[in-house]
Amino acid sequence: MTYRNEDVLDFYKELPFNIYGDLESAKKQIEKYNPLETYPELKKIINEYDKIKIMDFGCGGGWLVNSLSYHLKDRAEVTGVDFNPKVIDYANKIKDLLNLNSKFFSSDLFTFKKNTDYNLIISLGVLHHTNNCEEAIKHVSTYGAEKSYFFLGLYHSYGRKPFLDYFKKIQHKSEEYRFSEYKKLQNINDEKKMYSWFRDQVLHPYETQHSFEEILKIFKMINYNIISTSINRFNKIKNFRDIIDEEKKLELYSKQKLEQKEYYPGFFITIGKKI
Fold this sequence. Notes:
There is one protein chain. This protein is α/β, with parallel strands linked by helices. Helices cover about 45% and strands about 20% of the residues. It has helices at about 5-15, 25-30, 35-40, 40-45, 65-70, 85-100, 135-140, 155-170, 175-185, 190-205, 210-220, 240-245, 250-260, and strands at about 50-55, 75-80, 105, 120-125, 145-155, 225-230, 265-275. A seven-stranded mixed sheet has the order 3-2-1-4-5-7-6, with helices on both faces. Helix 8 packs parallel to helix 13 and helix 9 crosses helix 10 (about 190-205).
């Protein structure tokens, strides 16, 4: 795949990822679901601070930013950056509906000018859509304050492969057929949101996949110690070699999920703390 930034931007302008059919539905989801329950490891980090500054790079429609702002209230100053002005407008509308203090900026992550350092940097499912994931990780890490945390989510080299292979086999089929196959794997009640997931997972013009072993090397370069990863379910890491061995099993796990018609995107999270 040849990377062109405008192709990725145009793709998301056509239909942003994880967007609901109406603003009221998005508002209700934020009120109902606390991301600190979805990501308990985030909760552990945030609870270390009386007040925390959080940055979400590639915030999309602002679900995580607005959710954290809503549930943490005055305990957090939460900011989101995305290169798509369409989703920033959407995020701001939901922010206003909920009367939140979250902040949003429309900017390329490589050119965004910070006016503060952040205690927690988040980027979930974004940097593998840039033209150079390693450089994106390095750049984003510079926004971290002393002893900050980095909560990074990427497609996994082994875990993603069966999903990609399956949809590559049927890429000659109509989009309608492929969408129907995707819907067998994932259950989302909102049709527009479901279609945005399908496009992001199956039709995206550019993505890369990565391994824990690769991220371990990059985190060493940027002076972040890895403290946990979803590969071992965020359990204590005794030896990095154990994680590297464990991640190779994700391809088989992904194949099994596909056979069982269960959604598994082949995605992993790595959490680091700045030295």
